Amino acid sequence: MIKMCGDRAIDRATDAFVAHRNLLFTVAYEMLGSAADAEDVLQESWLRWSQVDLEQVRDERAYLVRITTRQALNRLRIMSQRKESYVGPWLPEPLLTAPDVAQDVELAESVSMAVMLVLETLSPTERAVFVLREVFDVGYDEIAAAVDKSPAAVRQIAHRARRHVDARRPREVVSQREKRAALESFVRALEGGDLQGLLDVLAPDVVYMGDGGGVKHAVLRPVVGAGKVARLLVGGLSKNPIPIAIGPTLVNGSPALVIHLDGELDGVMAARVEEGLITGLYFVRNPEKLSHIASETPLTLQ
Questions:
Q1: What's the mean pLDDT when you consider all of the chain?
Q2: CB 3.0–4.6 Å: which of 108, 111, 208, 288 could bond 223 by disulfide?
Q3: Residue 214 region by backbone torsions, left for phi larger than 0, else alpha for psi between -120 and 50, else beta
């Protein structure tokens, strides 16, 4: 199905790719947990798409999703090797998102830090099937073509992946207002060095994770328990001689915090909120994972 394309064919290919680019990026990002790698996947997908004979393509969207999924699967297997030697916990790259993402409840949940971490526990094929089926409602036949499995096998994989994710994802959908309120209480207590205030907003079994990638200081293993997390945060802030600014942002479809040290971007902290309490804190400091946050243009996902 590959042939040399003329200018007209290239224009048509470009128009189709641009029209579906946000969708393709979201598919790649949800499969990889890395915006930088997702961008690379889109570059690779474009190179292959630009050589396709479009006269033979019945559904441009489905074909593009298939190409992107295959490239993301290849990249995911390479990333798995990188993660084996990663220093400390590996957290998904935080993604600055536009308000319209938060308004799409299902999409916002699917790109949330909490769910992205759950997706990390799936095999590459399970992750691809789950993302395509549960997030984008792609048909089983189309998914089968993308992952080189039979439709019957894809149905089984989808069922297994859904059961796995449902057992680990947040139990209920939390409103954006409730998330913001919890984070505002958290920031007030943190900035005031109010240990009791932190204990009031942190769930008893809260989990704190940090990702410095071996470049920035971060906890090397999860810290569990409200008391331990509160003392860690208050102690760290009190010992820091550099001016710190904590501000609100919208990351992965949910309210989050952006931290600046002496005016320079230092990290992003995402939170998992359940029943009004923070049950998870995810602090990303690895500079390689902050490039999209440093950008002033939030991404609109589709």
A1: 90
A2: 208
A3: left
